[in-house]
Amino acid sequence: MMQDKIAELVDQIPALDKRGTFTGPSWEEATPIFDGVLAAGKEGVTAVVAMLKDVDDGADYKARYVLHGLAQYLGRPGKEAARSLFVEALAAQLGGDRPRGAQGYVARQLQVIGTKECAAALGKLLPDPELCEYAAQALLAIRAGAVEEFRKTLPDLKGGPRLTVLQALGVLADAASADPMKAALSDGDREVRLAGGWGLARIGDAGSADAVLKAADVEAGYERIKATSSALLLAEKLLAAGKKADAARIYKHLKETRTDASEAYVAEAAAEGLAKAGG
Amino acid sequence: MPSSKLGRRAFLKDAAASVGFFAVSPSALRADPPRRSPNETYGGALIGCGGRGPSTYKEMTKDLTVEMRAQCDVKFVDKADNKMFYTDFRRVLERKDIDLVAIGTPPHWHALISIAAAEAGKDVMCEKPMTRFIAEGRAVADAFKRYKRIFQIGTFGRFGESRNKNQILTHKLMRSGLLKENPGVFVKSGGLKVKEWSGRVNVAPQTPPANLDWNLYVGASPMKPYVPPRHGGTHRGYWDYEGGGLADMAQHTLDPYQWTYGKDDTSPVEIEASAPPAHPEVCAMWGWIEMKYADGFTLVLESGEWGNKYDRKQARKPVLEDLDEESRKKFQAMPDPEPLLTFAEAVKTRKPAGGNAEAAHRCAILLHLANIAIRTGRKLKFDPVKEEFVGDDLANRYVNPPMRAPWHL
Prior knowledge:
The complex is a heterodimer of chains A (279) and B (409).
Chain A: H1 2-10, H2 27-39, H3 41-49, H4 61-73, H5 80-91, H6 100-113, H7 119-123, H8 132-142, H9 146-153, H10 159-171, H11 178-184, H12 190-203, H13 209-216, H14 222-240, H15 244-257, H16 264-276
Helix pairs in contact in A: 1-3, 2-3, 2-4, 3-5, 4-6, 5-6, 6-8, 8-9, 8-10, 9-10, 10-12, 11-12, 12-13, 12-14, 13-14, 14-15, 14-16, 15-16
Chain B: H1 5-17, H2 19-24, H3 26-29, E1 41-47, H4 53-61, E2 65-72, E3 85-86, H5 89-93, E4 100-103, H6 110-119, E5 123-126, H7 134-147, E6 151-153, H8 157-161, H9 165-175, E7 185-189, H10 214-218, H11 244-260, E8 270-274, E9 288-292, E10 298-302, H12 325-332, H13 343-349, H14 357-376, E11 380-383, E12 388-389, H15 393-396
Parallel strand pairs in B: 1-2, 1-4, 2-3, 4-5, 5-6, 7-10
Antiparallel strand pairs in B: 8-9, 8-11, 9-10, 11-12
Helix pairs in contact in B: 6-7, 7-14, 11-14
């Protein structure tokens, strides 16, 4: 009964044109549809989610559009209570044996509208190679409650999810994760090494300077380019934090080691930084 | 400029024919890049060889002597030799004999490749739109400032504006600080290809073509299954890679006027859109977008393709008569703006190009503000200094959306 009522509302979304492109209803036309779903409470939202297919081939575009429209609608001031209901209903759809494609889509809607209340549900998806990225991106967008989920999950992760979560901790400049980032500097995977160095730079951890510089002194190539960039970022962070001597040490090292003509621009940037650091 | 398939083929053929020459070129064998002199031969690379790529490369070589030394495209899986042809731009940027990089990829790669190129010491000409979201532009501008590299956006209308007497007058007036309340209204009507660059919703996922590295193509954007319109020009219709006709055309259209109206160093503070609720994946229809600057200047984009016509304000240039007599005297004593430097002039003099990263970023912000107003469905307030929305955390989620590892700003 409920499912039929919701299906009727969803079906009011306009048809695609012959080319397969879409023009949505005006907000005036869409609002009664959104309100109709919300009037049915969490069950209404769940009923729309139940209409999602695993594969996005256009067959369920109306349900996808309604969920995304709700995410936009509930971002408006004054809609806080309905937003909580919506977020809770979506979070309840994560995990278990529900279609992976549908779960991924729900996670992406939480990236738009989610709150800290759904952080734990998203965190449970982090070990899943298929859903980890979507979950991590939603958590990073929400911020509140994200760092705890990443920290808690990192030690057990491998492969893609490990890199994703390590990088996410770097995005959040999580000082409490400095140790795993330092450990990452000697990983066998170049991307993990670079993510570790970049994370340490974002944190602005003076104690990591030697390790970050060592990582930047690898032989010429892309890794040296990016790791050097992280070393400069770390120096900038230290300088901004008033740790001039620590910053100067990094700048001095880069100025003195980037002596090849092909790296003159790095030496120049380091010299400029060194001057600012009073070195 | 070759923009047709035939033109691209001819371009690639020419470049391929030159491989033999480069293989024995002394400059290509040097360990260190050559010292710069006005008649120096520069090593050039094109990253993103379809669509506008070849035109962007040709623009980059204007008034410079450039040898094409690398071409890179994610659809070169079947021809990559890592000498002339590459699929992975990182391999290109490692090369010491490449000085100049033209970026003709879809926009979701523009910022990351530009930044990596600056970090590798290269100068860049990058196809418009500069970025896919606001924070990317700030990161690009910071990187080019840090490494003192040259950046020029691949749209050039501002150079003509900066030589036009009437536009110089408007520019000076806007920059003079003498307008007590800015009455200016600029309306751009039509030409933004809204329907044309709307994405298709009903295409089933397929196996990617064997010559395409889909993972590298998707890059920092959310991983989605391959559907043909997401690649190869029609990518414009998907939020993951661009921002519809608005993002594709508006930097081209607005960049000259941003110079004329003197807004290279600031952004609007209020943004409002008339549009249906946005689709999650594809860029679709909208009617108009109104953006107000702090000084009162108003910029309007009108699609003419959906909803009611914009009727709040009429287009109007600020004119000398808007100044009182004393201000006019002060105005007459003000110098004309410095001429804008072309990419070639900037490369040779190491001074910023006319379409430098900071200016291009401010223009790209306009497209992103417009699209975020469409995607949130509400009136927004923006802080042009912090480059974030005021009192709207959800809108700010579109300013710097997380990237897929290992990519990050």
